[in-house]
């Protein structure tokens, strides 16, 4: 056993660290990459300990949620990759509303469905959104019909700060906007989020989840390797429409292609060469710039 692995295990638990671990199954785009060191976090303490030991050993730390907004092109992520499987949910009723405390590893879509079934309103349009609460608040993930963001009904959150200390922050701390939250700058770890939700009739919230899923199925490719919309909309202009109008739907480089159904979705057939994805991204950007004078920016985090 390497020295570093045993140092990590002395804090994170015996036999819990995997070396040179294949991350591909945990990335919705399924690019091939490995983690130098890998841990599955099951509890908040695992996340806290991972931060503390990574600081002590000066190891880079990467928190992986559902891996649905990532295009990892590097062959290897150095340091410690922690896949967040911390699952916990508490609901308190207060003055006709509910206060939901939810762990960062909780799958968003599952949560949206569970809440909608109870008539708890505020997160139901996240039904069908892949990934975890941590990833959704890091990105302030959005829904377009009606325009809403995961951060909208957040009240407060518990974070692991830069130095490994726990801090409690309110919504304003996150500086939420389109595809933005402060976590992208601070790299603090979300432990739990507290949302205030309204109680309404379950028929209403269920209508919303049904609509969200139906709309996704109508407009997005399903059952494929993808990381969703690759580029951000620019000043309200849909990146997907711009790409569509360039005529690039179906354009292929190696094992990556632009979806025929939704031009902002890039699909991977599997075992693709990351250089081909980069070529396809450059081609899309160049064509949109040439035809519309618009500079596209990646929404997906490219590493
Ligand atoms: C089919 C499909 C449909 C999609 N539809 C939408 C959509 O409708 N709207 C939308 O906005 N996006 C959409 N996406 C993109 C993606 O699902 C969202 O951005 C999602 O919220 C990312 O969550 P994740 O857990 O997968 O994050 P990951 O991809 O695992 O991580 C994203 C970033 O968040 C950070 N992170 C994750 N957890 C934590 C934590 N606990 N603390 C701190 N940082 C953390 C990671 O380090 C990483 O930098 C879609 C993707 C796919 C594949």
TrEMBL record:
One of its GO terms (cellular component) is cytosol. Residues 30-200 form the FAD-binding PCMH-type domain. Pfam families: FAD_binding_4, MurB_C. Its cofactor is FAD. HAMAP family: MurB (MF_00037). Cell wall formation. This is UDP-N-acetylenolpyruvoylglucosamine reductase. It comes from Candidatus Roizmanbacteria bacterium RIFCSPHIGHO2_02_FULL_38_11.
